Amino acid sequence: MRNLTAVVADDHQLIRDGLVKLLNAYRGMEVVGEADNGISAVTLAKTHKPDLMTLDIAMPHAQGIAVYTEVRRWSPDTKIAVFSGITSVALMRDLYAAGAHGMFTKRSDISEFEQSIPILLKGGRVISADAAAMIDAATETTSLSAREQQILSLIANGQTTKTIAKTLGLSPKTVENHRSNIMSKLEVGSMAELLAYALREGLLDSQNQL
Amino acid sequence: MRNLTAVVADDHQLIRDGLVKLLNAYRGMEVVGEADNGISAVTLAKTHKPDLMTLDIAMPHAQGIAVYTEVRRWSPDTKIAVFSGITSVALMRDLYAAGAHGMFTKRSDISEFEQSIPILLKGGRVISADAAAMIDAATETTSLSAREQQILSLIANGQTTKTIAKTLGLSPKTVENHRSNIMSKLEVGSMAELLAYALREGLLDSQNQL
DNA sequence: CAAAACATAGGGGAAACTCCCTAATTGAAG
DNA sequence: CTTCAATTAGGGAGTTTCCCCTATGTTTTG
């Protein structure tokens, strides 16, 4: 009796194979689709509306939280277990806030995920030990306000003070003040150090893939 | 008859499982050790001196080329197939220069690796299609001179024009000119973009691995 | 050898950044 | 209700980038 469906999305074939095997071994569950990029992940979610979906948040063609929210939009009842290979703390934090059901890193013990399946299917939430530790560590070091984080992210994406001011509808002087506050909070003395910090913490949107 | 030995080093359990299964299925081969971090990878290489070793270059405790060279030192006859999950072009280039036998990305088709095993065992070299494309793309874009690369690296590590000038014993103006040339070569228009590029390419010393 | 690339160093000006202030409004915490 | 943090916005001075030049000596390459 197979009444539970699952979709596996990951661009690493080995990981995909492992997860498919694991999910197919789960009683009553069948993997009905596999995706190796963000776009087909969303498509599969739309067509199959699976009960469970594993989602890598770093795949070609569409990255990060965008894929998550798209899947969510087209199949709101699907329970989504996010697997992050890259350890982008900011992304994890966002997904946590966006309400991902499961959060695992690819370094997590796989049995952790296996044991989580029934919980996830019931609508529960599971955050693996190492993912939780990562989020904690991040939130404690990040004493930046929401606005400051937003502006830091824009800076890290190569935007200048002026363009940031324009996109946010603020005075350039305000943006400058925020940046100044960020720098004193993070104890850095130049854009270079600030950038190094920001990029280290994974605040880049697009090109952390290469 | 099992006369070939192999060691699998990868911090992702799913990947490890997949590779172990694949290698054990190879005629006459047996996986005699698994490592989930750089240190135990080196230890296993030292104790087992396997014929073949798969090596992830982004693992906890010791990263990148250091692990490769250590393995090489303790077991020079072991054929090493490098798997890179993170797409650090600089690292790939270095490993290529250091003479890694096999180079695959985790996005590679696994059959590519499977078919490569006999070639690797004979001492041949195999670079998967996508890894080769990556290296080509990198070497063609990186037209920076030695001095320019050095200065870019210093910039990426948070040094200012002045301090760079002092450490290199140059005029600040010279450093500035180099930076300017770098920026026009890389087609970026600000420190922010330059930093983004540099960090992406893995020019940071310590913490580009997070 | 000649040409090209590289490394060195500087002038000058517009723009951006860095750091010192003040100050009004808002919303949350005690 | 009061205090505190956050957000907004600005003044002003000094420094650094950024981008345009010129110029000389060396090294590499065709």
TrEMBL record, chains A, B:
Any single Pfam family the record assigns to this protein: Response_reg
Entry-annotated residues carrying 4-aspartylphosphate: D56
SMART domains for this protein: HTH_LUXR (SM00421), REC (SM00448)
Domain spans labelled Response regulatory: 5-121
Domain of life from the UniProt record: Bacteria
Listed SUPFAM superfamilies: C-terminal effector domain of the bipartite response regulators (SSF46894), CheY-like (SSF52172)
GO BP: any one term: regulation of DNA-templated transcription
Domain named HTH luxR-type: residues: 137-202
GO function term, MF aspect, one: DNA binding
Gene3D superfamilies registered for this protein in UniProt: 3.40.50.2300
UniProt keyword list: DNA-binding, Phosphoprotein, Transcription, Transcription regulation
The protein's name: Two component transcriptional regulator, LuxR family
The organism of origin for this protein: Cognatiyoonia sediminum
